[in-house]
Known about the structure:
The chain has a 5-stranded mixed beta sheet with strand order 6-5-7-8-9, with helices on one face. By secondary structure, it is of the alpha/beta class. It has helices spanning about 20, 25-30, 50-60, 75-90, 110-120, 155-160, 160-175, 215-225; strands at about 5-10, 35-45, 65-70, 100, 145-150, 185-190, 200-205, 205-210, 235-240.
Amino acid sequence: MTADWVIVTAPTDRGHRPATVLAPALAELRTRYPAIVFRLAVQGGSDTPITEALDDAAAAGAQSVLLVSGQTLGDAKQDSWLARIVGHWLRLQPVGAPQVRIAPLLTSQHGFVDLLGEAVAHGGTPARQTTAPIQSPAWENVPECARHVLVCRGPRCSVEGARETSETLTAVLADRGLDDDAVLATVTGCLFPCGQAPVLVVYPDGDWYSGMRPDRIARLVDEHLVRGRPVDEWVKRRLDRA
């Protein structure tokens, strides 16, 4: 193995966080390959984005970085995004940046059959009828927030700094004393106008903001979410509220 760094990637951190799920595996790999730095990164979500992990590798003086998908089954869209993200990062690097390689899918490795065989041999645990139901009275009520802010954490928005945008929004809302009854902030998957990244949407106003990096958040909160005056110069589109 020739890589200085290995970055295990996941498409998103929705559901169980990959950093938690893959922690035992990464710990074992560090024991097996003590000379290699192992990190985890996601294409979208609140965990470390791939570009940030690559930045860390470059800052540490890595010469070769290998990206390994932690997924078992392939996803053409995610594979395409991974290649785009790495290409975008490489175009921004100076001469002498680490060489980046993308590993084949786990399903193409001989050991994948062994993993399936182990699952078959284990036999599983019995399913039961006493699990929590898929419906609950607690999930009947629509939130009564005055405004709902959607923060895109799709692949391109994540590359452009949406993680920091989301964290800054949470901090500023708390500083202004705006709880979920006033402003409900939700991290989403791709909202689609990727060329406007990072994208943020305020409902029910219908204002779609573009280029919402952390340094814009305090003004957005104070002017739009507190005073009710959208910051028109950052609004890419305003939906018809008629």
